[in-house]
Design a protein that fits this description.
Number of strands: 6
Radius of gyration: 19 Å
Shape: globular
């Protein structure tokens, strides 16, 4: 997956969305560009340096699956040949060790730099509304292990009591819904600012240092929403979650839950250290430009 193709995808995400849902067909320029890139250089896919011809065919076949009513860049069915290449024991061990070392060192440095910003934001939150400026929530980590994630509180402390309908996930018939709302009465004025600037996520760096999450990986899900994942659950939980992932620098809050899962499964199947660095850079650009976040 080349960076230029993902950039083209972003343009389509913003241009093709209608009534809160993204619509893209296999004939769209983004899909054609993606297909051309895959056909010319299958080795440039995220997470794959070199693959054998059979694995290359598997990639191209997987990306032909599409649904006219939503964007689908890959088949969500398991790709055993591809996973066999990506999950070679020696490759996985080196990658995991390098990734954890990078998380620990770079995450610690970022946490030290971010601490003054976190404290200033916490003071602003506390001045506007009652309650702790920090929000601690149970999320699911690798293999479904629960842990406590730390964020800055962007909503009123009693938001769940005042707006219970926003937390009722049992009435969701499928994954074709947007988790975030452009206009959200639960969000405070200070919360609106820290969410748009992504300052509310800075305390996640503490979880990175502890080893609960990585800098790059699918976002850790809350148990209530994970119950909706169905057949995607096991693969989504097969890796350590992260602060950012492919979905967070390609559409972010404008994506439906299904689209988010598809992007992040794409990352899981093709992850490598170079892809992680690319996602971190793209995330930095998105945060600075405040793209697709509310």
């Amino acid at each position: 997956m080349s960076i230029s193709v993902i950039d083209h995808d972003r343009e389509q995400l913003n241009a093709k969305r209608k009534s809160g849902r993204l619509r893209m067909t296999s004939g769209s320029p983004a899909v054609r560009a993606r297909h051309d890139a895959e056909t010319r250089a299958p080795a440039e896919h995220v997470g794959l340096e070199r693959i054998d011809p059979e694995a290359a065919k598997t990639i191209q076949t997987a990306h032909k699956t599409h649904d006219q009513d939503r964007v689908t860049y890959l088949s969500v069915e398991p790709m055993n040949d591809l996973r066999a290449v990506a999950d070679r024991p020696q490759t996985r061990v080196v990658y995991r060790a390098a990734k954890r070392s990078f998380d620990l060192v770079f995450g610690s440095v970022l946490l030290v730099i971010a601490t003054p910003i976190i404290l200033i934001a916490a003071a602003a939150i506390r001045l506007e509304s009652k309650g702790s400026p920090f929000f601690i929530q149970t999320r699911l980590g690798k293999d479904g292990r629960p842990f406590k994630i730390v964020k800055l509180r962007g909503m009123y402390k009693d938001a769940r009591d005042r707006f219970p309908s926003y937390y009722d996930y049992s009435n969701k018939p499928d994954l074709d819904f947007c988790f975030h709302h452009e206009v959200d009465p639960r969000v405070t004025r200070a919360g609106n600012f820290i969410r748009k600037t992504s300052i509310d996520e800075l305390p996640n760096l503490w979880n990175v240092v502890l080893g609960d999450i990585s800098l790059v990986g699918p976002r850790p899900e809350i148990p209530e929403v994970m119950a909706l994942y169905g057949k995607y659950r096991d693969e989504y939980l097969s890796v350590k979650p992260g602060v950012t992932c492919l979905s967070k620098c390609t559409g972010r809050d404008r994506l439906t839950k299904r689209e988010t899962i598809e992007y992040d499964l794409d990352y899981i199947r093709r992850r490598n250290f170079r892809a992680d660095m690319g996602i971190l850079w793209r995330t930095f650009r998105s945060v600075v430009m405040r793209r697709d976040v509310f």
